[in-house]
Design goal:
Strand content: 25-35%
Helix content: 10-25%
Structural class: alpha+beta
Radius of gyration: 29 Å
Largest sheet: 9 strands, antiparallel
Shape: elongated
């Protein structure tokens, strides 16, 4: 294997290969057209390009001061600052007077017979407006893509061009290696050491006190001076073997665990990586992608957020006394935008310059088409540590519609589902993660799909026929060790989305969780299309029915409670009391031959077969040994959906007319639903 050329000496500024005469002419024409279309004024400064004639621009002057080669690449098209100024205005309106951490992300440049590497310099120029705390490149420069019009030194040239653009920024320019930054083409292979020497070590001089990169690696951390923020740089190419990537090596994971544990109290953590290990990543479904340690990373972050301890594949961690505050994991690679919150962790993907076809977008990912010669594609991440708010602002491609906002505020701990807590995997398998660890069996091959709204896999029963006998389902045996803990009371939580074909609502009875054969209880949809909880108490089934009908293709949160001491059973729909009745007596268990509890259907009889299939999707099935109060149920709803339960006082009887008081302000509303009011989601009942 041919060796890679020696890394650049510290402080060396590489020369830029001169453009051909044809390239120069094409560029002059492009810059001239851009200037004529966009105008000469850029937030009060003269344009860098007027017509086809080159004039000195800010980066050209700065480059000259540093002794760098100054040629046409130094010119900054006028659209760069225009688009940045427009984005900066949105930022100012959002952040107000609150101290804000700012950093831009440029990722997936994918230079290959293109000049997309110029966007690095263009992003640097926007610092004159934003004054960033640091800059980030999340990999995939395109060193292994090669070019039919370049020589064997292609990767060397791109390394130098990229580094020069990064060096124009006087602060830390953080780099997270991508899978297209390793194999240099032409039989060469770039190592961690090559990339470390090229991109990382330059910032360990002036910023040595704050910037710590593992020697010879491309992962480490940067503590932002005078701010309680630690930026953790991960390497998702955890192996040096070509073709094996999207991994986080055990050595790196052990390092990360130690770093998370030692983080000082009150420190806000921002994690940067090329690859998104969460299932929202675009490439997670590709069979030949090796990701043996990605799920371990997810479990580490989730347990850190929830202050738990765990172990997997020989790696152990204990975060019960951890003090850091996790803002989120920010990644590139997918060439699209998406954000979800899962188990207390925010996962964020930012769009890069790399191509993507609409058919390749998964799980609600957003992508803005653009011409890289006339439009920037850069997300500026703004974080308010005091209020724990995050918002990304798009410069260029897609503009305001690509902005995304989320929070990493700690939520009040929800009660633990101590008797049953079902989760669904990509394969369709169901697992009980409660302390009971009930063994979940299956008939046929139940399916699961990823739901972008919830950020998790859910049971997919949309191919079942409403109320019929399903041919694939999950079930478990209701053992005495569970039943004996609910004889004085319990709570059942479900989060479901019913579905059916056509517009007419089905009139068949069906079961979400079924344990009803001469005893037991069940959460069902009645034959009239209304939510129904049926516990067998005092010698008969008690019917608690909601007034509201089921809504097609809408997630609905259901909680049923029974308290033997008070003699009351209750049904809550979306956090609000929907039905309640007195039902003194004992909860009757089904006969021993009917002890199977079914998920998404019910038991038909002694033959163990199923009936009453629920057509739709199920995200949550949880059983608790306590009968929750209305406030506790509201907290379950809020933690499941992220929406507060707001009692809206009515000035008139009809919900379709009147003025409502939302958060101290009067607003008009004409129907139930979820509303955005002053940036907050409100559920109007």
């Amino acid at each position: 294997m041919e060796s890679h050329s020696s890394p650049l000496a510290e402080g060396e500024i590489p020369s830029i290969q001169k453009e051909t005469q044809k390239d120069m002419q094409n560029r002059r024409e492009f810059l001239g057209n851009a200037a004529r279309l966009l105008g000469a004024a850029v937030i009060g400064k003269p344009a860098c390009v007027l017509g086809a004639e080159m004039v000195e621009g800010p980066i050209r002057r700065n480059a000259a001061k540093r002794g760098a080669t100054a040629n046409t690449q130094d010119e900054i098209p006028s659209f760069v600052m225009e688009q940045a100024a427009e984005t900066f205005q949105r930022l100012e309106e959002w952040r107000g007077d609150e101290e804000t951490l700012l950093f831009p992300i440029l990722t997936d440049v994918h230079t290959q017979d293109k000049e997309t590497w110029r966007h690095i310099g263009w992003m640097v120029e926007t610092d004159k407006i934003f004054h960033y705390d640091f800059m980030a490149n999340l990999g995939d420069i395109g060193l292994n893509l090669g070019s039919p019009h370049s020589n064997a030194n292609y990767s060397d040239q791109i390394l130098k061009l990229t580094q020069e653009q990064m060096m124009r920024y006087k602060g830390p320019f953080i780099y997270a290696a991508g899978n297209h930054d390793w194999d240099g083409g032409e039989g060469r292979h770039l190592t961690s050491q090559n990339l470390h020497d090229t991109f990382q070590r330059y910032w360990t001089g002036k910023y040595k006190k704050y910037y710590h990169i593992v020697d010879g690696k491309v992962y480490g951390y940067y503590d932002i001076p005078k701010k309680n923020v630690r930026v953790i740089i991960l390497n998702s190419q955890g192996t040096e073997t070509i073709g094996e990537y999207y991994t986080y090596g055990n050595e790196q994971l052990e390092w990360l665990i130690g770093l998370l544990k030692e983080t000082k109290p009150g420190t806000h953590l921002v994690l940067l990586s090329h690859y998104m290990p969460h299932w929202i990543g675009r490439w997670t479904s590709v069979e030949n992608v090796v990701r043996p340690t990605c799920e371990i990373l997810l479990h580490i972050l989730q347990d850190f957020a929830e202050r738990k301890k765990g172990a997997e594949q020989g790696i152990e961690w204990d975060f019960t006394e951890a003090q850091g505050i996790l803002a989120g994991l920010f990644c590139g690679d997918s060439h699209a935008n998406l954000q979800v919150r899962d188990h207390g962790v925010n996962y964020y993907i930012t769009q890069g310059l790399g191509p993507v076809s609409p058919s390749s977008l998964l799980y609600g990912q957003k992508h803005a088409d653009f011409d890289y010669q006339t439009t920037l594609c850069c997300d500026v991440i703004a974080i308010k540590p005091a209020s724990r708010q995050v918002k990304s602002f798009r410069i260029g491609a897609g503009g305001k519609r690509m902005d995304m906002e989320f929070s990493y505020a700690e939520q009040e701990a929800r009660p633990q589902a101590d008797l049953l807590d079902i989760t669904f995997a990509k394969s369709g398998a169901a697992t009980d993660i409660s302390p009971m660890v009930n063994r979940i069996s299956k008939t046929g091959f139940p399916a699961a799909v990823f739901d972008n709204e919830l950020g998790q896999y859910v049971y997919d029963g949309t191919r079942s026929e409403w109320g019929t006998a399903p041919d694939r389902y999950h079930y478990f045996d209701m053992q005495d060790k569970i039943w004996n803990q609910i004889t004085d009371g319990f709570s059942l939580e479900c989060y479901v989305r019913p579905s059916w074909s056509g517009e007419e609502r089905p009139n068949s009875w069906c079961s979400i969780l079924g344990y009803q054969q001469n005893g037991g209880f069940g959460m069902v949809v009645g034959s009239d299309g209304k939510w129904l909880f049926q516990p067998h108490i005092g010698g008969c089934y008690v019917n608690l029915k909601s007034d509201a009908l089921t809504v097609k293709d809408r997630w609905t949160h259901l909680v049923a409670t029974w308290n033997r001491e008070s003699g009351k059973a209750s049904l809550y729909v979306d956090g609000m009391l929907a039905a309640q009745t007195d039902c003194p007596g004992e909860l009757k268990a089904p006969d021993t031959s009917f002890r199977r509890c079914f998920l998404g259907c019910d038991l038909r009889g002694a033959d163990g077969a199923a009936e009453a299939a629920f057509r739709g999707q199920i995200a949550t099935l949880r059983l608790y040994r306590d009968a929750f109060t209305p406030n506790e149920v509201a907290k379950l709803f809020e933690t499941a959906t992220g929406l507060p339960v707001v009692q809206v006082p009515r000035e008139r009887q009809s919900v379709h007319e009147g003025t409502y008081n939302l958060l101290g302000q009067n607003v008009q509303s004409y129907q139930h639903g979820v509303y955005i009011h002053n940036g907050k989601k409100i559920l109007v009942k």
